[in-house]
Design brief:
- By secondary structure, this protein is an alpha+beta fold.
- The protein has helices at 9-15, 21-31, 73-89, 130-147, 153-160, 165-181, 191-221, 263-271, 279-294, 301-330, 335-347, and strands spanning 5-8, 40-48, 51-57, 63-71, 99-104, 111-116, 226-228, 237-241, 248-252, 259-261.
């Protein structure tokens, strides 16, 4: 947590030396009525890198809490499209945090997104609460079902990217290409580094040979293309208390990686945030939701595990791309620590869902 600061809006923002502080101050002032004395900051707290919670005293309007996120213009535009175009198009305008405004610094290098503050109802603090988890699962199912085959998907793909076959193939190819260049005379390797490079390169070559089969499995059993959140950690999911006891309103935040692909890409990320013995009921909740909403019949655990593995291996390959780039271009000393970590992920992989005949934990 960052240090709490209070005071006049303009003074606090300038004191924090935030990029685009002047422009952000103008945007917040306009949201509070526009007058110079319309708002004071009661609290400004850094939640994580480039993300702040601000509580404003708006005078007659009373206190107001907002989240401020500083990002590059491309990601800001991405999130604006999600909030104002893609989700409304599929009837899920309330699926994310409401976007209240934005502000760009005068040099066009950073942009602030101003959104409603959903409070402290993150799902990572309630993963044993089946009612809250179930509400979020139902929202994920609705996102996938309502976007399947929708006319908005080409727009999502053009601006958000394709997280299906192109993502998998490109990551494997780029990771292998980078690792193949990590050798003398370009790079001098220790025996340990040579071992990491060789192990990871062999694993990626095997994955490359498996690509036709893996993609065929997804084409046959993965269902239609859908709009994906793209980063479904429980830290990006909220369950807000509803109007009645036991009623929960789910929300998803941080849509930086939203794109188009197979639903298994989202599901593998989400399921892996839970203990292994909790995953079957979560999967069954999703299975029932998509069956009831659209008649989708999902395959069994073995087939699902194969698709989940492909999604995760695509992410592993992606994480292997950038250390090689940083080492070859900028001489990053940390690159092999990162590559060793990725190699360990491949070695430690276990199927996401328990399979028939597997002993209970």
């Amino acid at each position: 947590m960052g240090v709490l600061t209070t005071g006049d809006l303009r003074d606090v923002l300038e004191a924090e030396r935030l990029p685009g502080a002047a422009e952000l101050g103008v945007a917040l002032q306009e949201m509070c009525g526009g007058a110079d004395d319309a708002a004071r900051i009661l609290e400004l707290r850094r939640l994580k890198t480039n993300v702040y919670r601000v509580r404003l005293d708006t005078g007659d309007g009373g206190p107001r809490s907002l989240l401020l996120k500083s990002t590059n213009p491309a990601l800001a535009r991405h999130n604006q499209l999600v909030a104002r175009r893609w989700l409304p198009a599929i009837g899920l305008a309330d699926a994310g945090a409401r976007l209240e405004g934005s502000a760009a610094d005068r040099h066009g290098q950073r942009m602030w997104l101003i959104s409603e503050d959903l409070g402290d109802a993150r799902l990572d603090g309630a993963i044993t609460d089946r009612a809250r988890v179930g509400a979020v699962v139902d929202l994920i199912a609705a996102l996938h079902v309502r976007s399947a085959g929708h006319a908005i998907l080409p727009d999502c793909r053009a601006h958000g990217g394709d997280l299906g076959a192109p993502y998998l193939c490109a990551n494997v190819r780029d990771a292998m290409h980078g690792l193949e260049q990590l050798r003398p005379p370009r790079v001098t390797l220790t025996p340990e580094q040579e071992s990491v490079r060789g192990t990871l390169l062999a694993r990626l070559r095997t994955l490359q040979h498996e690509l036709p089969y893996r993609l065929l499995t997804l084409e046959l059993g993965g269902g239609p293309e859908v709009l994906l959140h793209g980063d479904l950690w429980t830290t990006n999911a909220f369950a807000l208390a509803g109007a009645r006891p036991g009623e929960w309103q789910p929300r998803l935040i941080d849509w930086d990686h939203a794109g188009v692909g197979w639903a298994s890409y989202d599901l593998s990320t989400f399921l892996l945030r839970f203990p292994r013995d909790a995953r079957p009921w979560i999967m069954e909740r999703y299975r029932a939701a998509v069956r009831n909403a659209a008649g989708w019949q999902l395959p069994g655990s073995r087939e699902l595990n194969a698709m989940f593995e492909t999604a995760e291996f695509a992410r592993f390959a992606n994480r292997a791309v950038w250390p090689s780039v940083e080492l070859l271009v900028d001489g990053a000393a940390w690159a092999f620590d990162e590559l060793a970590m990725v190699a360990g992920w491949f070695d430690d992989w276990r199927p996401v869902l328990p399979e028939p005949g597997e002993p209970s934990p």
